Amino acid sequence: MKKTALALTLILALLLSLMIGVQFVKSISTTIVVPDDYSTIQEAIDNAVEGDTVYVKKGVYLENPVVNKSISLVGEDRDSTVIDVTAGLKVQSNNVTIAGFTIYDGYDGISLATNYCNISGNKITNTTHGIIVFGYENSISGNIFESIGLSSAIQLNFANRNLISGNYIVSCVEGIQIWQNSNNNTIRENTITNCQETAISFQYSNDNPVVGNNISLSGLGTSIYGSNNNSISNNNYFNNTVQFSAKEDYYLSFGHNRSVNIINENYWSDYDGTDSDGDGIGDTTYIIDAYNADHYPLIKPVVVPELPDGADNNGSDKSEPFPTTVVVGSIVAVAAVVGLGLLVYFKKRRR
């Protein structure tokens, strides 16, 4: 009887472990490799499930991927994993990660109409628009934007509580546009240089902190229009044709009040004041216009970490190229159930 009981216990444990192991495998994300598993990025996305990683090897892919499920889309190497788009890459699901690609030659680089997404370590170049964001609590960080030809590198529209940080924007028509009721977004430690028009612009957007950015060699450093309570501090304004502007005559003609924002402790390359007490703050106010001024201009530039060419060039360090997690998880599940069966058996023997 004891041998029979032991055999039954072991068989039951094995069956349960197999059942749990199968369920466990299904619940853990896997990695799909392009072009090994599927020849195109879109095929891989279509065959992925929520939580999977689509890992794309080096190469040039002529397609316009649509990411319509919560997955990670990761390129092997930013400079060598190129998506040559026409319309652009579209993100249509929450909780998506896009990292490690060069996106080239399309109307949009990336359009994002979702929430909780992470777009990092990419290069977007020679597109009409860079990244357009509709949504909230997304992170756009550590990307390079170059030669965005018609509009801005990053545009926020009806977008709230997003983080725009550590991006390098060069030779674009515009840098970062905070437009159309985009509120409570943080614009931090970006380097924006050589924009033909405006480096950072506000339009009908409030409560956005803009801190620690390098803004240089552009037509207009920052513009404000119909926007209030934005905090603009600890930024460097280097040699822009116009450092800062808040021309709102047309807006005021409709009976609106003039915008009121916090402009404080920025460095202005054309500031010619002195610092008699050596506290790093200029003795006199930096005048922008009759209604706007920086009362505490910095004497020295703020140290802002720039994104060097090649930094964050794949974004894939944290991703597994193959699903080893599934194998380990299954082994753990089997061991746990078999152990439970043996524990029950030995307790019965003691009785």
Summarize the structure.
The protein is an alpha/beta fold and 351 residues long. It has four helices and 32 strands. The strands form four sheets. The protein has an eleven-stranded parallel beta sheet with strand order 1-2-5-8-11-14-17-20-23-26-29, with helices on one face. Strands 3-6-9-12-15-18-21-24-27-30 form a ten-stranded parallel beta sheet, with no helix packed on it.
Name of the top-level CATH class of the largest domain: Mainly Beta
Describe the strand arrangement of the main beta sheet, using strand numbers: 1-2-5-8-11-14-17-20-23-26-29
Question: How many alpha or pi helices?
Answer: 4
Q: Tell me the CATH architecture of the largest domain.
A: 3 Solenoid
Name the beta content range: 25-35%
CATH homology-level superfamily of the largest domain: Single-stranded right-handed beta-helix, Pectin lyase-like
Described by strand count, sense and barrel closure, the largest sheet is:
11 strands, parallel
Structural class: alpha/beta
Number of strands: 32
What is the terminal-to-terminal distance?
14 Å
Give the averaged pLDDT, no decimals: 84
- Helical residue percent? 10-25%
- Overall, the morphology is elongated
**Low-pLDDT windows of residues:** 5-26, 311-351
Radius of gyration (Å):
27 Å
Could you tell me the CATH topology label of the largest domain: Pectate Lyase C-like
Number of structurally distinct domains: 2
